[in-house]
Amino acid sequence: MDTAVDALAELQAAIPVAGRVLRTTDLMAPYLRDEAFLCGHGTPLAVVRAHTTREVAAAVRVAAAHGLPVVPQGARSGLTGAANAVDGAIVISLTAMDRIIAVDAAERTAVVQPGVITATLRETAAQHGLVYPPDPGSWQISTIGGNVATNAGGMCCVKYGVTGEYVLGLEVVLADGEILRCGRRTAKGVAGYDLTSLFTGSEGTLGIITEITVRLRPPPGESRTVVASFASIAGAGNAVAAIIAAGMTPSLLELLDRNVLRAVENYRPMGLDTTAEALLLAAVDTGPDGRAAAAAIARLCRAAGAGEVHTATDAAEAEMLFGARRMAHQAMQQWAISMFPGGDGGVIVDDVAVPRGRLVELMTGIAAIATAQGVLVSQVGHAGDGNLHPNIVINRADPASVDAGRVAFDEIVRLSLALGGTCTGEHGIGMLKTGWLAHELGPVGVRLQWAVKHALDPAGILNPGKALAPPPGENGMTPRQRRAGP
Amino acid sequence: MDTAVDALAELQAAIPVAGRVLRTTDLMAPYLRDEAFLCGHGTPLAVVRAHTTREVAAAVRVAAAHGLPVVPQGARSGLTGAANAVDGAIVISLTAMDRIIAVDAAERTAVVQPGVITATLRETAAQHGLVYPPDPGSWQISTIGGNVATNAGGMCCVKYGVTGEYVLGLEVVLADGEILRCGRRTAKGVAGYDLTSLFTGSEGTLGIITEITVRLRPPPGESRTVVASFASIAGAGNAVAAIIAAGMTPSLLELLDRNVLRAVENYRPMGLDTTAEALLLAAVDTGPDGRAAAAAIARLCRAAGAGEVHTATDAAEAEMLFGARRMAHQAMQQWAISMFPGGDGGVIVDDVAVPRGRLVELMTGIAAIATAQGVLVSQVGHAGDGNLHPNIVINRADPASVDAGRVAFDEIVRLSLALGGTCTGEHGIGMLKTGWLAHELGPVGVRLQWAVKHALDPAGILNPGKALAPPPGENGMTPRQRRAGP
């Protein structure tokens, strides 16, 4: 405990401003975990609400000097436990570093602090006549720093790509407290290893991102939205394949299954067709040919067996439909709560991606897994990317229900890998999928990931237990995983 | 020498097929260097013409066992010496690994061996109704493996990005001969550190790429080409800024100065306006609004002071104009030869990028540098990306001319960095710019690059002396650089 006492004293001395270093249980309570369901958290030594890069560096130096773990945190809207506190850690919250430092419309770039809310950056870009496309589900509360640390996706990705494609440069506090600037301000540049991409998605295990230079885009113009209902999941999946095979690039191509439709309609009635087995939601950017593209999508949906196919007549209607998609997670949570009166309903959100052509196999397989485990699993996701978010409904008060949910979770990941997919399309590894990551990467991949980790964080203080597969030689699977595989 | 003898015997034993292991001076001669002008090369121990990943791995294992350097090579069309042999090295040529393993039109992916010629991949993609956009200047002879190893750019980048944006996954032979597969086959995926991006652009210093999964795109449709001549470099630069500021995204935006125009016209007469100080070449993808976009570009060029502005009436005319741009390097080389009858004329091709808004400053600065050093420097490049390729004309038979050329080369890089740019937009570091890389990255950046290098190649056998800044503590600049800076 001497180490802890010394470290705390040094932390206070290094960051003497009131309210920056939180130590009491009640003050630290909001900083313990993210939105992940199956992940526990530890008791940190302190929470630092950093306001400057210097404060982040000072906190890391104290941690390095005492060998304490460091857990960086954004808005804690993640779904994998990547931001969860570990015992004895110095948690560094970046949410107060929320300045947009510069927007350069001519260069189509912005320089931002990590605590900037994604929605705020999007609004600011819009004020300059530009767009910042990435739109993770939590974009109204998530931070850019968290988006970069997890390489967050969203609905735009099918056309506009994930967060990483918009990151030009970073400022990063390294494991020894030194400050690195990497990347560039130019449109092109190949000087040196691509450390920017290495830090992007590394979930705070290689360094703490304290400034981000993002690329902005000119606005795509108006868009046109098509919604099609299907009597079968397979029909919707086939429509997705047909749209991609036709050489189209919709700006959004989302799928909601019947359970999600019912949950959303239950949560906020908006006249969705809850008798359909699946709803496909597509948008295309209009130039003058948007109308033709929308008509082509409608035609392909009908050919794939769609029942009702409707093209939104105005932006408000389209926005209502996107809103329905965006509230899927929240609606499912509410639905899960209502499903177990007197219990403790909740959802485990999974995140898998397969080659687009295997989407129907994935979705029908998930339905079979749900039946076999006797749990309700709703399916919603970015169909155009083959990226699905099965929501597994469980009663947390019932260990058998939790257990069945976990088995379903693992079986879904296993199926995704068997179909040539990945264990995470966009949510990341966090604490949730370290065992599955080992399975996906294989021993050489795991060894290399650890070689990089050791090179950048030799003492292993940065966000331990997250993002990486168990070190070579260790098993590291959860008891559940050991029982079920991988 | 015992090591060398042993290593050779082991190499022959591991790869017993005739013609795979080349040892004699004459057989090895074609594999000694790339197209870079200022870079020397050493004498390799052997050249391995690998036909399989197993042969690559076998060669690397022999090298690792004996501590010999390994130099991987594609078509040797690079311009930085990255592929140049070093003394005692096992050079591994990948050009014979030239199979297109699979094209999956539904997933829009292709799996290829590294020796596939860029043009061949583009043609094969086209046969499947798709495009592989990256088009480095040498695309008709360069290999995909070399493109990935250098993260090559091209004319398409202003809209479609560089090679790295099309690399989904890799197979890589590591420094110990183990075989890694990294990346994914799905549209999205965030499992583990992004090793794929780390290997991309690492110039063979972290591993040898033996298979590549690339992303393909649906074709953009027809395009429309605008060509505008300017009486000043500044006018052309201002037109570029205006086009970008207007929120346009041309698919190509190239600049050729008067020297290049004269060299091209000299090389292959095509009626280019050699009285103009600069020619701007723009293309926009047409949908039905391409006509409007082309008209807008023409209008912006006129507003920026263009003399003649012409919109190509057909594809053949557009292709002729692109052809003029593509032959710039070759034409400049021919022109340089003709400029020193009885001498040994040649060009040093530089490659710098600045924020687009600084392009005029860069170009006028380069003109001033040329005047100050008494050398002829032509300017050509990807203006829409702020990426310029000054061609410095020298007489290799005249040490004073070479010296002046080198000073100009360094001064151009120095200016680019001073303008917030980078020392290489797309050609890479190779042997040519290791000193400048240190200048650009700074000490923390250099330290981190070496940490990664040591993690993946602890013995330092992979392409030594390339791509990295001199190790921390060493100077490593060329004598010229020591005199001139940085």
From TrEMBL, chains A, B:
Which one Pfam family would you cite for this protein? FAD-oxidase_C
Region (Disordered) residue ranges read 462-486
Q: Which UniProt keywords apply?
A: FAD, Flavoprotein, Oxidoreductase
Identify the Gene3D superfamilies for this entry.
3.30.465.10, 3.30.70.2740, Vanillyl-alcohol Oxidase, Chain A, domain 4 (1.10.45.10)
Its cofactor is: FAD
- Residue span, FAD-binding PCMH-type domain: 40-219
Concerning InterPro entries, the annotation shows: FAD-bd_oxidored_4_C, FAD-bd_PCMH, FAD-bd_PCMH-like_sf, FAD-bd_PCMH_sub2, FAD-linked_Oxase-like_C, FAD-linked_OxidoTrans_Type4, Oxid_FAD_bind_N, Vanillyl_alc_oxidase_C-sub2
Top-level taxon of origin: Bacteria
The GO terms describing molecular function are: FAD binding; oxidoreductase activity
User: What's this protein's family per the entry?
Assistant: Belongs to the FAD-binding oxidoreductase/transferase type 4 family.
Which protein, by its recorded name, is this?
FAD-linked oxidase
Q: Which organism is it from?
A: Winogradskya consettensis
